[in-house]
Design brief:
351 residues, 12 helices, four-stranded mixed sheet, 35% helix
Amino acid sequence: MPRISRPLTAALGALVLGTSLTACGGSADASAKEITVYSADGLKSENGTGFYDKVFKDFEDRTGIEVKYVEGGSGEMVQRLNRERTNTQADVVVTLPPFIQQASSKGLLETYQPAGSDRVADADKDPSGKWTSVVDNYFCFIYNSKELTTPPRTWNDLLDPKFKGKLQYSTPGVAGDGTAVLIKAMHDFGGKDAAMAYFKKLQANNVGPSSSTGQLAPRTAKGELLVANGDVQMNYANTKFMANQGIFFPAGDNGKPTTFALPYAAGLVKSAPHTANAKKFLDYLLSDEVQNEVSSVAGGFTSRTDIKPGDRNAIALGEIMKGVEIFRPDWQDINAHLTSYVDAWKSATGN
C-alpha cells in the first residue's frame, strides 16, 4: 500500500503576513522565539482544522516558538526566497518538486538533516541534506461527481467539447501541481513534443491560468468546473468540506492510470534569521508524533518508512491508489530543463 500524506485548501492571511514581513526590512531578532515558514498551499485549512493548524499550535505549545506563515504556489515561494536572498525573511521553506530542487540549485537552502530523516526513503530526500520530504503525496485530477457519474478515463476524454469552459489546471512553472500536469503528460505521451501537441488541443476547453491549485477545488465542488488538477492529499482532505469531489488519474494511450510522488519537501533557508528555531521545527515535522498524524489529520502519506498508519484515512487513501501505476520522474533532468519545458507549454497554449 502506498504511504500517505498531504494537504487541504488555504488562502488565509498570507498576503497580510507578507506585507508585515516586507515591512520588517530584515531587522529580525535572531533571539526571538519565532520562525517564518514559506509553504506551498494544501496543508492549512480555512476553518483551522488542517495539518499545519495543529502542527503549528502543538509546536508553539511545546517550545514557545511562534510560527508565522506565508503561503503561495511552489514556484512563487522559491521566487520570493530568491528575491529576498540578501535580506532573508524565511526560516523554513516547504514546496513541491521540482521547486525544492530548484531552491537547492539556486543556493537558497542550508544543509540540515532533521532527526528522523534517516528513516525517509532516499528518493524522498536530498543526498546532500538540503531538503527532506515531510508529507508524501501523489499527483491527481479531480472531477465533479454530481455532474459526472464517472470520471474521464483518459487524457483524450478531456478533449470532449462538454468540458469547454469547465476544465482548468494550474499554471506550470508557477504552481507545483500545475508543473506536475506537464510532467505527467510528457510521461504518458512519451515525450515533450507529443505532450505539447496535446496541450494545444486541450486549450480549446481550458478556462485559463491559475497560480494556485488550491483555488480550483472549491470551484470543482460547486460545479463551476467539471475537471481540474490537484493532488491526492489536498483533494482527499477537502472531501470533508467539499462534497461532489472525486479523484481520478487520466491514462495515456495504453489505458493505464498513472501518477507519481509529489511530496511536500522542507528545507532550512540559507541565512535564516532564526536558524536554531527552524532546526527544532524541522525535527518536529519528522517526529513520531507528527508523522503518525499525517494521514489522520492531513489526509496524506507519512514520509517515514517505519511509520505504518492504520487509521481510516490511511485505509481510504490506499484504496484510492489501488491499481494506479506509479512512475518516478527524473527530477534532475526536470530541474535542468524546466524553463524550456514551460516555454514549450506557453508556446503550445498561447499563454
